[in-house]
Amino acid sequence: MPRNILPVKLNEIKEGVVTDILHNGMGVILIDQHYPVKLVDAFLGEKIQYRLTQVDRLSAYGEVIKVLEPSPDRKNQNKAYLLKAGVAPYVNLSYEGQLKLKQRQVEQAFQSVDLDLPVAYPIGAEQQTHYRNKTVVPLKKQQGHLTTGFFDRQNKDLIVPMEDYYLNDPVIDQTIGIVRDILDQFKTPIYNDATKQGAMRYIMVRRGYYSKQVMVVLVSHLAELPDEEGIIAAIVAKVPALKSLILNHNPRQTSQQLTGDNRVLWGDAAIHDQLLGHDFVIGPNSFYQVNPKTTEVLYQLAAQMGELKKSDVAIDAYSGIGTIGLSIADQVQRVYGVEVVERAVEDAKINIAQNKIENAEYIAADAPAQMEKWRDQNLPADVIFVDPPRRGLTESLMDAVVYLQPERFVYVSCNPVTMARDIKYMTEHGYQVKGNIQPLDQFPQTAHVECVALMIHSN
């Protein structure tokens, strides 16, 4: 069939078998061996009846009408709203099925860059729902009421209303509802992207897993909310365990949720929580892993795979507020951290002081430049830890690692696709993977998976 003649039509109803799962969790049915139709809530091997909802030259999207032959791993939860918003694409897959699928996805990521590396079975999460310690939700007036939830995957003008977000700590969900209703009561104007008018854009809530402290952040287009004092008083009166109430001023015309412009409305500028026996200061903009129990497993695993010795000098790159570096400080001689966000480094220094850690030093600088400087100063780096954002490492950072020539390089990743790309680069520059790639499920019910790998210098 000529490629300019599409094998499907919009709104056509078809049947097919799912042959692949994409890294975003969507199932794929191939038509004529080359034309993919992508579907939510469709798992490997399932025979699906579906309707075409979007048709393009290279691929199409469909919606499941009926599962004709279900996978043995399917376990329907009757929570269609989570699929409608894209919050939990694996909600109808048994937990064992989720772990098997995530192992397969990691294997595929490495195969796609021609790396044949052993991928271990994922370490599962003890708590598989209601585990997140942070969320940021949009607000919108719908049907006469202020609504919170997440945007509809197929209609970005609509919010899918939610009370139970399924992934969040239940206290976070309750807090969102309380704050939303207070804003509705005060008739707080909601920001409108089309008119560029209004105030409130998002509600962010954090809750300490051990401390139980709650932070509420009101993200506003305006620097000051109408009826601000009344709103503050109502939130303080009604939100249990509130420790910090902050206004984040975000006048930007971008998709960025928070800026660095924070004003304390009530209480403290940060909350605290504990991780592996250390106390951490967590501000509105702090990067802090969202699944607290599996984060402890993750960092213990990273330390174990790093084969740490008391004589080691360790570098914590992309160090954030110091969570990885400070969690291993008692296992090594010295820790050096580098992070480009100055506010995060200030928090790391507070964390060092309050935990009475005397062998750690954190610097606000560009990581590649600072690492080259350390090499020129003959810093004896034995092991480097990296935990980059989803986009992975830059070549300049990897070149700096190669320049420093640590004996061990521990890569913690939340994106196996960019991890595979980066490990491929490192194998071409003098390093090799030792042992397995170890997935760990930080994000049950979703398509995301964390991985840890140890690389050693080939010499």
TrEMBL record:
Q: Which domain of life is it from?
A: Bacteria
Q: Name one GO molecular function term.
A: rRNA (uridine-C5-)-methyltransferase activity
PROSITE patterns assigned: SAM_MT_RNA_M5U, TRMA_1, TRMA_2
Name the GO terms of the biological process aspect.
rRNA base methylation
**Active-site residues from the entry:** 414
UniProt keyword S-adenosyl-L-methionine, yes or no: yes
Question: Which keywords label this protein?
Answer: Methyltransferase, S-adenosyl-L-methionine, Transferase
Q: Name one Pfam family in it.
A: tRNA_U5-meth_tr
NCBIfam families, per database record: rumA
The entry sums up its family as follows: Belongs to the class I-like SAM-binding methyltransferase superfamily. RNA M5U methyltransferase family.
Name-wise, this protein is: 23S rRNA (Uracil(1939)-C(5))-methyltransferase RlmD
Annotated organism of origin: Weissella koreensis
